Amino acid sequence: MNRRHFLSKLGWTSFWTAVVGMVAGLARSMYPNVLYEPSRKYKVGYPADFARDVVTPLPGEKLFIYNDSKQGFYAISGICTHLGCVVSKTQEGFFCPCHGSRFDHSGKVKAGPAPRPLPWYRVSLALDGQLVVDAGEEVKPGTTLPI
Ligand code: FES
Predict the structure, then answer these.
(1) What is the distance in A from the centroid of ligand 1 to the CA of 112?
(2) Ligand 1: centre distance to CA 102 (Å)
(3) Alpha carbon of 3 to those of 6, 7, 13, 16: distances in Å?
(4) What is the pTM of this model?
(5) Which residues line ligand 1 (CB under 6 A)?
(6) Who contacts 92 (Cβ-Cβ below 8 Å, separation ≥6)?
(7) Distance 70 CA to ligand 1 centre (A)
(8) Which atom of ligand 1 is found nearest the CA of 114?
(9) What residues contact residue 84 under an 8 Å CB cut-off, 6+ apart?
(10) How big is the chain by its Cα radius of gyration, in Å?
C-alpha cells in the first residue's frame, strides 16, 4: 500500500465514522432522556367513607384528608418541609419526630426548623364519585372541595 492509497482509506474511514456518528446521534435524539415517575394522583375513596370533622391519615400516600363539615374536603401533605420525614397527627396539629417541627391543623409552622408550611394538594371528584388527591399540584391553604 502506497502513501496515497493509505491516506485515501484513512479519509474515507473518517468520513463514514462521522456519518455513522451523526445518524446515531439523530436516532438517539428521537428518544428523549426522560425519567417516567408514577402518577401522584391518588383515588382515596368515596366521600361517604370519611367521617365528618375527622382527619384521616393515609400513610401509604403520606397525606392527611380532612372532611370538614363547614369547608369540605382538603388534603395536607404528611411530609415535613425540613428534610422530608413523615409527620404524625397530634392534638395541636402535626409533629415531625425527626427534628421536632410542629405545625398547626392547617399545616402552618408553629415551631422547629421546618422552613415552610405543609403543602395543601388539590382534591377533586373522579367520574366514579371517588375523591382524587393530586399530590403533584399544590393549592393555596384554604382551598377545599365543598360537597
Ligand atoms: S425533617 Fe421534620 S423537622 Fe427535620
Answers:
(1) 8
(2) 9
(3) 5, 6, 15, 20
(4) 0.74
(5) 80, 82-83, 85, 96, 98-99, 101, 112-114
(6) 102, 104, 105, 110
(7) 31
(8) 3
(9) none
(10) 27
Is the pLDDT at 19 greater than 80? The verdict is yes
In this structure, is the dihedral angle defined by the CA atoms of residues 127, 133, 139 and 140, taken in order, positive or negative? positive
What's the CA-to-centroid distance between 40 and ligand 1, angstroms? Answer: 22
Under a CB-based contact definition with an 8 Å cutoff, are residues 65 and 131 in contact? yes
CA distance 109 to 43: 28
Q: How confident is the model at residue 36 (pLDDT cuts 50, 70, 90)?
A: confident
The residue with cell 382538603 is 74
- Residue 96, exposed/middle/buried by CB under 10 A (0-12, 13-18, 19+)? buried
> In this predicted model, what pLDDT tens digit does every residue of 42-101 receive, in sequence order?
999 999 999 999 899 999 889 999 999 998 999 999 999 999 999 999 999 999 999 999
